[in-house]
Fold this sequence. Notes:
59% of the residues lie in helices and 0% in strands. By secondary structure, the chain is mainly alpha-helical.
Amino acid sequence: GRFVPHGIACALTAHAAFGVTHPALPARHREATRLLNGSEPDVADPNPLGAAVRSLMERIGVPTRLAAVGYGADDVPALVAGAEKQHRLLSCAPLPVDANLLARVFRESL
């Protein structure tokens, strides 16, 4: 199989994941964005943290999409199955997480 370091794997899905979680905790997402960017994000931006992480990845030359490291739509079910095993991480999400939501995040990350 493919080897993608854990941090890179998380970053590759961050834009889509933060797009999903932003409505649940917008103030926290804006604060994290401010810490990353050094300036206040636009309150109307629906995903400032995702954009900030993706911008950082681009600046340091890290791939920004799952497709860039060899994943495709056919891999989504296996990625979902693997993610569903991460109960400790999923239980910290600010909203309920199910297989459909995980699949959406992976598809949007391709």
